[in-house]
Amino acid sequence: MTLETWLASVLLLTIAMLTTTSGAYVGVNIGTDVSDLPSASKIVDILRGNQITHVRLYDANVHLLQALSNTSIEVMVGVTNEEVLRIGESPSAAAAWINKNVVAYVPSTNITAIAVGSEVLSTIPNVAPVLVPAMNSLHKALVAANLNFQVKVSTPQSMDIIPKPFPPSAANFNSSWNSTMYQLLQFLKNTNSSYMLNAYPYYGYTKGDGIFPIEYALFRPLPSVKQIVDPNTLFHYNSMFDAMVDATYYSIEALNFKNIPIIVTETGWPSFGGANEPDATEENAELYINNMIQRVMNGSGPPSQPDIAINTYIYELFNEDKVNGPVSEKNWGIFYTNGSTVFPLSFGASDQITAGNSSGVFCVAKDGADTDKLQAGLSWACGQGGANCAAIQQGQPCYLPNNVKSHASYAYNDYYQKKHSSGGTCDFDGTATITSKDPSSSSCIFTGSSNSSNGGLSIPPTALGPSGPFGGSVNLQVCSLKYLISAIAVFLAL
């Protein structure tokens, strides 16, 4: 092997490693229990317009599978719970399902996974004996169609089958499922497939009777006195999401299996709830979803598996108003059916902020907010937060009215408009809120206003804001990738 060839090989391997690291993704579940469900083509327009690259269907909806053709969007199709028993008892039924719902659409529709049932062990335990046989039969049908390397088979399970998820290092699956779980994990290992996990910190927090602070559920930084530490490993857990994933890794390891990656097939936070659901708020949902996206996209894993990205699907695209249950069950969507977002959000590492309406959104101080907290938020935004606060200095356009609430609103909004796409949120210790009403006046133009692209004075800030609770930079990885590609071209030209 020549030196040039060897160097090129090393660089290509490095690219592969970087691509794996930066290739984490956040997808979306598409439920269809919606009164005014848009057409399949409109749904695909929403996905593409918001750079959503992965979706999970709960069935094999013919209209959506057709509309998703030639889009490159990776699709996970679902075997419904009602279908599991029949497929598990009949290999011919499994083959027919694959031919009808997979073979008929690939390669035009980029189907890459099959989710067999949804939380079968905890919702329809009587079907458990045929769950793994159903997966085996579906896999054999994929082998017969020469699709087993492209399409992987797994089954989403809830955290309910892990009775004591904390501390993660001591977690185990419910022993009554040991036989089924062993068969399931053996199948995943043999077929190089992932374990599918539905992880909901919302429920972990609301059902936890105050054991954990809400900041822990929302990916928000914890003060030193509230740090969550596994006493056995001394791993620090900055979020309940990470702890849930790690509890599952340790449960898998307890059955003597390793190197089975976890995909989070459902997670989210409801934006509205009933009178007895005070934590189901739009503010909390925005914090959770955007912080989760930022965390997943940094490409790292939980403390016990730092090199395995936690690819994740948000529950869910639309509010499903036709589902049964409490008010919150109908309000997990991140989009309205007209294509606008329930709250501002940003997928991936782009600078695009997807606003809830075409006229823009703004972050302002809440009416009645504590003055001391507002002052602290204002000081942080103008300092560490990196907001451009020149316009609120004496003699400048936004100095009047000279009060802490007005000045905080300007600073909060400037920070939010600049940092939202990289994980910045409109919270400021509960003193800020999102509004679609432009707070600008004739003399004071807020950042993001349609009246001005500059939002007041263009004096560069002197400090940078936080990069998110977990750090990491996909843009840095992309830059590194570009340099590596250039280097390869040079070496190959030698």
From TrEMBL:
Keywords: Cell membrane, Disulfide bond, Glycoprotein, Glycosidase, GPI-anchor, Hydrolase, Lipoprotein, Membrane, Plant defense, Signal. One of its GO terms (molecular function) is glucan endo-1,3-beta-D-glucosidase activity. Coiled coil: none annotated. The keyword Membrane applies. Residues 1-23 form the signal peptide. Gene3D superfamilies: 1.20.58.1040, Glycosidases. It catalyses: Hydrolysis of (1->3)-beta-D-glucosidic linkages in (1->3)-beta-D-glucans. It holds the Pfam family X8. Its EC number is 3.2.1.39. The keyword Zinc does not apply. Belongs to the glycosyl hydrolase 17 family. Residues 361-446 form the X8 domain. The gene is LOC106765540. It comes from the Eukaryota. It is a lipid-anchor; GPI-anchor. It is found in: Cell membrane. It comes from Vigna radiata var. radiata. One of its GO terms (cellular component) is plasmodesma. This is glucan endo-1,3-beta-D-glucosidase.
